[in-house]
Amino acid sequence: xxxxxxxxxxxxxxxxxxxxxxxxxxxxxxxxxxxxxxxxxxxxxxxxxxxxxxxxxxxxxxxxxxxxxxxxxxxxxxxxxxxxxxxxxxxxxxxxxxxxxxxxxxxxxxxxxxxxxxxxxxxxxxxxxxxxxxxxxxxxxxxxxxxxxxxxxxxxxxxxxxxxxxxxxxxxxxxxxxxxxxxxxxxxxxxxxxxxxxxxxxxxxxxxxxxxxxxxxxx
Amino acid sequence: xxxxxxxxxxxxxxxxxxxxxxxxxxxxxxxxxxxxxxxxxxxxxxxxxxxxxxxxxxxxxxxxxxxxxxxxxxxxxxxxxxxxxxxxxxxxxxxxxxxxxxxxxxxxxxxxxxxxxxxxxxxxxxxxxxxx
Lengths: 219, 132
Prior knowledge:
Chain A has helices at residues 11-26, 42-52, 69-74, 94-100, 145-148, 150-155, 174-184, 201-215; strands at 2-8, 30-36, 58-64, 81-85, 111-115, 132-138, 158-162, 190-192. By secondary structure, chain A is α/β, with parallel strands linked by helices. The mean pLDDT of chain A is 93. Chain B has a 3-stranded mixed beta sheet with strand order 2-1-6. In chain B, a hairpin with a 6-residue loop joins strand 3 and strand 4.
């Protein structure tokens, strides 16, 4: 017998994500899900962001298979850090965030940054309840990574290309990289920056700052 | 290996829809190309996740949908396996959608069908015995 069913497979995840989104919006937070390959500089970008983003109270949820190292790095800049260890999981799911949220004092935050597990593929399909997905690439990763990972390019509200200070030392066709992105997602802003030198950080901070302001309760 | 999470969610949904006493034979899954699902990895995940569940020993029939491409220059729209192609008009098209991840059906042997099979088998066994 054939049982006809049409159902979204990740319905449960999506329902939990919708609940997270409601909780975060009730607290007037703007939330991003930062997705990038291991070693692309996610944590370095966050360190620099937390240092430079004045007047914005930031909480961080960091996802890794194991270790507290990223949480320790973040703890130098904010007290509101939760490390989620996924064990064998290659991505965060909405339930991880649901369990992490009670460990944060949401009323004392303006911006929540979720640093996903280093992976350009698996995290993309799982809604966490964020307002925006931010896809991250690095010069050191090579100029073909956007073309090879269309999902993250298409799903991101903004894309970051980091480690721009390495451009003189690494063969990287910047025009090719940019045109691959334009083809997949013609309107997404591409922010080219270096967290090490600080060059190019302003547009990123501005992008975040504007959205935090929009999410804030009207005084 | 997001395939394993998908397999686990899928099993939960099948459990909801499987008639009581029925045995699941096949599960039909449809995935958009945006999901980045690899058939081999998905089949492996299915074998790892199903033992001891309602989907034990069932087949997973995965259909990966083609990309839907739209040329914003001339308005042409078509489906294709490759995302990096040029439109007939010479412009580059954009992929649209492709995010689907849907259970589309389940093939089961119901309790009645199982009982019928059992009795058929019994008949053929006794017929064989008579012939001998």
